[in-house]
């Protein structure tokens, strides 16, 4: 979930070397630990990390120590390819999503503004964090300087916070639009204020990681880590707090809102006498909600193994000596980072306007053809909302009084028939109006100020 760089200790089979604090490392080196001992210091929790913990071990002879985390070239090549694909797809895919929304007026809706924020967060995290953490995990050495060490520990938590709370804002917005359609939607200004507030809270949450970031230059090695004033216990507490705040709590909120929305959209029978506009809006709402549910579920699945990894290795530190712990970390970290690349693919597959936008972006490819229908999908449609206080207009019926003259029965019958016809016609017309009015009062329908474009 939240990302940040931290150094911990991957130890070899002969013993553990502390990478938690500079004091532990310095004391070991001063006590006579060989330079080869430092080889066992690796990267552990590069994404929601912080401080690392280990206890000093007695100095050992250089010949008895080997670095078990040196990988063969073919394995390094495979991991490099896997991480490279994630970064390329995430960065370029999310940039195209941002372009589709900002370059086309029809796409500038409340939901899509939050999707812009989500895409920016994912692209930034993939570009500035994924490869750097991968290189650090692979070589166990920090190459990027003290300033980037602070940024690397600070920005990932910020980006993940912005991502998941953008999804939470979309869930709440969908809930309000569908459950309470008469309530005014968020304006463009209010949406920008919400997005700005999300980033401010993200900066505040991640600030301790920047404040306590350290770099330590050792013989043959440079480390980047977070040194908390009160040690590993404080780091573990902070990390659990971050997991709750940027994983458990927002997923709980989204789970509740999407469950209620899903029951509303799919749980009830559709009234029989409904117009085409009603069915069109209902279908569009279902598509948007379905797309966002998939986005949230994939995010939760991708980040779950990483959080489990952190908690288990923090509680059972002997797992850091396991032979395959580096591979487990690289796999869980790759899965977490891959969450940044799936959203553009989901949008393209499940939304016709995003699909048209991707076709326009890749129209230079020989196998991509942009049809006239695709062009029309992204053009602005003129919609003039009815400025009325309710969803339907109450029509007033004028009554008619019929006088019956018993002296002229035939004439009276004829008169009644002639006069009854307008009344019956008016009654039928009223019945049709009431039927249509009743259908529009359903909770599925949107307010008169919302067009179908808001849900497509």
UniProtKB/TrEMBL annotation:
Residues 425-456 have a biased composition (Low complexity). It comes from the Eukaryota. It is found in: Cell membrane. Its main location: membrane. Residues 405-456 are annotated as: Disordered. Keywords: Cell membrane, Disulfide bond, G-protein coupled receptor, Glycoprotein, Lipoprotein, Membrane, Palmitate, Receptor, Transducer, Transmembrane, Transmembrane helix. The keyword Transmembrane applies. Gene3D superfamilies: Rhodopsin 7-helix transmembrane proteins. PROSITE patterns: G_PROTEIN_RECEP_F1_1 (PS00237), G_PROTEIN_RECEP_F1_2 (PS50262). InterPro entries: GPCR_Rhodpsn, GPCR_Rhodpsn_7TM, Neurokn_rcpt, NK3_rcpt. It is a multi-pass membrane protein. The keyword Disulfide bond applies. Pfam families: 7tm_1 (PF00001). The chain crosses the membrane at residues 76-102, 114-139, 151-172, 193-212, 238-267, 288-316, 328-350. Residues 93-347 form the G-protein coupled receptors family 1 profile domain. Belongs to the G-protein coupled receptor 1 family. This is Neuromedin-K receptor. It comes from Echinops telfairi.
């Amino acid at each position: 979930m939240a990302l940040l760089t931290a150094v911990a200790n991957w130890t070899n089979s002969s013993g553990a070397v502390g990478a938690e604090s500079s004091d532990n490392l310095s004391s070991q080196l001063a006590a006579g630990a060989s330079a080869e001992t430092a080889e066992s210091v690796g990267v552990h929790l590069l994404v929601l990390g912080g401080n690392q913990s280990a206890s000093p071990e007695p100095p050992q002879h250089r010949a008895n120590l080997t670095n078990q985390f040196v990988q063969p070239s073919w394995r390094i090549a495979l991991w490099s390819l896997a991480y490279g694909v994630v970064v390329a797809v995430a960065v370029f895919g999310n940039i195209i999503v941002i372009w589709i929304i900002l370059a086309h007026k029809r796409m500038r809706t409340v939901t899509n503004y939050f999707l812009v924020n989500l895409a920016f967060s994912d692209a930034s995290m993939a570009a500035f964090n994924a490869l750097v953490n991968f290189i650090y995990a692979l070589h166990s050495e920090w190459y990027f300087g003290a300033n980037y060490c602070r940024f690397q520990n600070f920005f990932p938590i910020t980006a993940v916070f912005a991502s998941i709370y953008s999804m939470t804002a979309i869930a709440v917005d969908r809930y309000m639009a569908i459950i309470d359609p008469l309530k005014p939607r968020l304006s463009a200004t209010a949406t920008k204020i919400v997005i700005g507030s999300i980033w401010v809270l993200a900066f505040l949450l991640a600030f301790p990681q920047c404040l306590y970031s350290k770099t330590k230059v050792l013989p043959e090695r440079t480390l980047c880590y977070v040194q908390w004033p009160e040690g590993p216990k404080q780091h573990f507490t902070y990390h659990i707090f971050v997991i709750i705040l940027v994983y458990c709590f927002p997923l709980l909120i989204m789970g509740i809102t999407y469950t209620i929305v899903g029951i509303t959209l799919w749980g009830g029978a559709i009234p029989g006498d409904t117009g085409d506009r009603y069915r069109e809006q209902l279908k569009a709402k279902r598509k948007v909600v379905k797309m966002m549910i998939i986005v949230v579920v994939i995010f939760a699945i991708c980040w779950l193994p990483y959080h489990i990894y952190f908690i288990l290795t923090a509680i059972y530190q002997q797992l850091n000596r396991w032979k395959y712990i580096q591979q487990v970390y690289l796999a869980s970290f790759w899965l977490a980072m891959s969450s940044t690349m799936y959203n553009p693919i989901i949008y393209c597959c499940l939304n016709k306007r995003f699909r048209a936008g991707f076709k326009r972006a890749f129209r230079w490819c020989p196998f991509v053809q942009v049809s006239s229908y695709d062009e029309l999908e992204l053009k602005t449609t003129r919609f003039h909302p009815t400025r009325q206080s309710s969803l339907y207009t109450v029509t007033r019926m004028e009554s008619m009084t019929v006088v019956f003259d018993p002296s002229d029965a035939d004439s009276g019958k004829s008169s009644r028939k002639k006069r009854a016809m307008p009344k019956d016609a008016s009654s039928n017309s009223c019945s049709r109006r009431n039927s249509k009015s009743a259908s529009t009062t359903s909770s599925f329908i949107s307010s008169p100020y919302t067009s179908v474009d808001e849900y497509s």
